[in-house]
């Protein structure tokens, strides 16, 4: 016999597993701090690459004036300015990454909690149906009609 509420619950769970659940289950394998810091470190590495690519493009764009003025520049001051801007960029980028992945982790844990609650509900539905089936079988054996 088909149980409509069980089918709806199973469809909802299958939809979650096929879509958002894959990401949530992958995130759920980590502790919060480990997940967030892994993502922050990755973003710092990618941010560093992006920063130096942009600096390289700016240098290549203005190479002619840079080469003509290189003897007039204070290279130590230019290096300090680049380092200061790099640290500012990485700090802001790291903070944003921390916030974003903290929120993602919290959302994933919430979704997983709801998913596991649905699993418990589904399991209790199966247990209840199995218990009722055994009671009907027992009643038939004892000669009592349902």
Written description of the protein model:
This protein is mainly alpha-helical and 146 residues long. The chain has one domain (4-17, 34-138). The chain contains 5 helices and no strands. It is rod-shaped. The two termini are 16 Å apart. The relative contact order is 0.13. The model has no long low-confidence stretch (mean pLDDT 92).
Key structural traits:
single chain; 146 residues; mainly alpha
Oligomer: single chain
Distance between the termini: 16 Å
Question: What's the overall average pLDDT, rounded?
Answer: 92
Order of helices and strands: HHHHH
| Fraction of residues in β-strands | under 5%
Q: How can the largest sheet be summarized?
A: none
The beta-strand count equals: 0
Give the helix level as a range of percent: over 70%
Gyration radius from CA atoms, angstroms:
30 Å
Number of domains: 1
What general outline do the C-alpha atoms trace?
Answer: rod-shaped
Poorly predicted regions are none
Number of helices: 5
- Broad structural category: mainly alpha
Quick description:
This protein has 146 residues and is mainly α.
Blueprint of the fold:
Layout: H1 4-18, H2 20-27, H3 32-61, H4 63-69, H5 75-141
